[in-house]
Design brief:
By secondary structure, the protein is an alpha/beta fold. The chain has 6 helices and 9 strands.
């Protein structure tokens, strides 16, 4: 599984490095506390409160799966609205001054139908399935296509 760690702090740019022992933020080690909020499991009206509660609980990072089958309902047809509005969710995390860790599949398990793999992929020939598994890259490109910037 591909994990993408987005540094979405709005207060200041963060210089993140790794010293073979730990993550370093602006030259200092920091223990990050994370919690999971899977954005499609709730409605957008709940996201601000959920993120606020996580921050009040001393979490630094919100992590979430990116459910491929919620974003590519059929080949090449993308959906990023309502409870699948990933950009809106990331911006809420950013505005809270927290970090975002995206857990991008293609298979995410997460007690989600088919582990997040689209149903239509099941009907593709096996040789095409391997090519389509790279399709999650298309989903991520669609998410970030000029819509968001993270500093």
């Amino acid at each position: 599984m591909l994990v993408l760690f987005l540094f979405a702090s709005v207060a200041m740019a963060v210089n993140m490095t790794f010293d073979h022992r730990s993550l370093m933020f602006n030259g200092e080690r920091k223990l990050l506390i994370s919690t999971s909020i899977h954005y499609p499991r709730s409605v957008p009206e709940m996201w601000l409160k959920l993120v606020k509660l996580a921050k009040e609980g001393d979490a630094d990072v919100i992590e979430s799966y990116v459910f491929w089958n919620g974003h590519e309902l059929s080949p090449g047809k993308y959906y990023f609205e309502e409870r699948f509005d990933l950009v809106k969710f990331i911006k809420i995390v950013q505005e809270a001054g927290m970090y975002m860790m995206l857990r991008i599949g293609p298979f995410v398990c997460g007690e989600w139908n088919l582990g997040g793999v689209p149903v239509w992929l099941h009907y593709e020939p096996v040789c095409v399935q391997f090519v389509m598994l790279a399709g999650i890259r298309r989903v991520f490109k669609e998410i970030c296509q000029g819509q968001c910037s993270f500093s």
